Amino acid sequence: MKAKTQENSKKILEISNLKKYFLNKNSVNKAVDNVSFSVSEGEIVGLIGESGSGKTSVARTITRFYENYNGFVTLDSKIISGNKISKKRLKHMRRNMQMIFQDPMASVNGQNNVYSILKEPLVVNGVIQEKVKRVLKSW
Fold this sequence. Notes:
Blueprint: E1 11-23, E2 28-40, H1 55-62, E3 70-75, E4 78-79, H2 87-96, H3 104-107, H4 114-124, H5 129-138
Antiparallel strand pairs: 1-2, 1-3, 3-4
């Protein structure tokens, strides 16, 4: 059996020439400027850089927290960038791509219990309520 390599693995996520600029009073902040990379099936990628280098801006742009950007983003060979994206494609994107914050205080609402935190994405993504109860009950 031949081992999968980056060359023969399916590309799950492709980012090409991504740009996100913020306008200030008298200047333009180029938070993301011409970023390109891809993630293949089974590959783990870390986005590493100094504080203020644009890591979070890249992630927020890719996951569409930020609008009005230039460049192309594809997820599972489907374009998810641009102003006009169908609700179906947006739902697919949100089911398959999410941000994980490094700061635990930004990741988890301390006022929620573990059950509520684990239940929310399952309910939002249409998992049957009985299945949620069964999984969380056994946990």
